[in-house]
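chain below, 192 aa
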Amino acid sequence: MNHSYDFRGSRAPVNDSEQLTRFEEIMLPHMTAAYNLARWLTRQEQDASDVTQEAMVRAFTFFKGYHGGDARAWLLTIVRNTCYTWLRKNRSHEFSTSFDLDLHDSEDPADNPEQVAEQSASQEILRNAFETIPLEFREILVLRELEGLSYQQICGVTELPMGTVMSRLARARTRLQKILRPQQEGETKHDL
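prediction:
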């Protein structure tokens, strides 16, 4: 998915073209990671696009405060914070709902022909399982397993202590395995 944004028309004041050029060179290579994080946190493509655009505007607005370092982690921190602000405003129930497999049944892949065409059945099962994991665990799993961030980088993005990051990652992996195990066993029975 190609995401491109023109920051010349943003709310952020452009003082000079050098700052805009520097921003584009440093931050735009991380657009895919920014969108992926937003997509997994919001669980909707259009919402993820909107949140990513807002996050990029915020990143550009505060780019003067970026003084080097891990640009990807810096941008993902802004994306994460923007997602959480958006979720609190639009889906506050996600912060108070406890995890219950019966309440979080994944949608039937056949309901969305676009997804069926895009991905194989096993990818769809994994995606649905991934989306049923509560937000606090899902974000750690996305940052580690999909975006490849180190534990230290995840601590920076989430502002959580190392022990909390490691614990949430372990719990997220366990929950993902519990969700996938019955589906894998069902596939094995069908193969016999």
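DSSP finds nine helices and no strands in the chain. The CA atoms of residues 73 and 157 lie 6 Å apart.
thats it, cya
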